[in-house]
């Protein structure tokens, strides 16, 4: 398995280094704030979508079996573009879309509604990747997964041991399991 940027060059390099890789996540920013910040205003939404689809095509051409596409900063991405991004990724062969609450920006209510709508409209399983900037990673992950399931799709939740992870941390494995069980 691997996680790389959604560029054709990264896909080619990955398969040069690890030709037997079977599971891959491609990651690219989708919010206007991140597109401007990360790419310094040199990319449009269309160019972001083109980069993502070209990377999906390259990964599929190399024989990847399971492919996820990450919408970095999905929680601040305009809904119309997020839907277009996710539906296009599914049509190109992505097996799932990773909804990233990159800055811990969502609330349980907003993530539930967004993920339900996304799952229903695009017909694609969704992976939740939530951050704990406001202490909401577990609540947002569970609420988002409930929205995906209510939208008719399978949900996956990214977790870490003790919530330790990038910046402010991610959803804690034990807390997510207990929240789902009880």
Mean pLDDT: 96
Number of helices: 7
| Helix proportion range | 40-55%
Major pleated sheet: 6 strands, parallel
> What coarse outline follows from CA principal-axis ratios?
globular
Notes on the structure:
This protein has 182 residues and is α/β, with parallel strands linked by helices. Helices cover 48% and strands 18% of the residues. The protein contains 7 helices and 6 strands. Strands 1-2-3-4-5-6 form a 6-stranded parallel beta sheet. Strand 3, helix 4 (79-92) and strand 4 (96-101) form a beta-alpha-beta unit. Helix 1 (8-17) packs parallel to helix 3 and helix 4 crosses helix 5 (108-122). It is globular. The termini are far apart. The mean pLDDT is 96.
Keywords for this entry:
about 180 residues; alpha/beta; 7 helices; 6 strands; about 20% strand; globular
In short:
Helix content is 48%, strand content 18%. It is built from seven helices and six strands. Strand 3, helix 4 and strand 4 form a beta-alpha-beta unit.
SSE inventory with pairings:
Blueprint: E1 2-5, H1 8-17, E2 23-29, H2 32-39, H3 45-61, E3 66-72, H4 79-92, E4 96-101, H5 108-122, E5 126-130, H6 137-150, E6 155-157, H7 173-181
Parallel strand pairs: 1-2, 2-3, 3-4, 4-5, 5-6
Helix pairs in contact: 1-3, 3-4, 4-5, 5-6, 6-7
């Amino acid at each position: 398995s691997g996680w790389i940027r959604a560029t054709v060059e990264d896909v080619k390099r990955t398969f040069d280094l690890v030709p037997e890789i079977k599971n891959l996540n491609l990651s690219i920013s989708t919010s206007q704030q991140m597109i401007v910040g990360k790419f310094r205003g040199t990319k449009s939404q269309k160019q972001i979508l083109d980069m993502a689809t070209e990377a999906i095509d390259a990964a599929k051409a190399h024989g990847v079996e399971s492919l996820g596409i990450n919408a970095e900063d999905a929680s601040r991405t305009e809904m119309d573009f997020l839907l277009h991004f996710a539906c296009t990724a599914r049509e190109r062969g992505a097996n799932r879309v990773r909804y990233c609450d990159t800055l811990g920006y969502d609330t349980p209510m907003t993530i539930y509604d967004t993920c339900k709508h996304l799952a229903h409209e695009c017909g694609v399983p969704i992976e939740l990747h939530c951050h704990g900037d406001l202490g909401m990673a577990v609540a947002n992950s569970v609420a988002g997964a409930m929205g995906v399931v209510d939208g008719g799709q399978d949900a996956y939740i990214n977790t870490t041991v003790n919530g330790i992870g990038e910046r402010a941390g991610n959803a804690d494995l034990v807390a997510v399991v207990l929240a789902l069980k009880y």
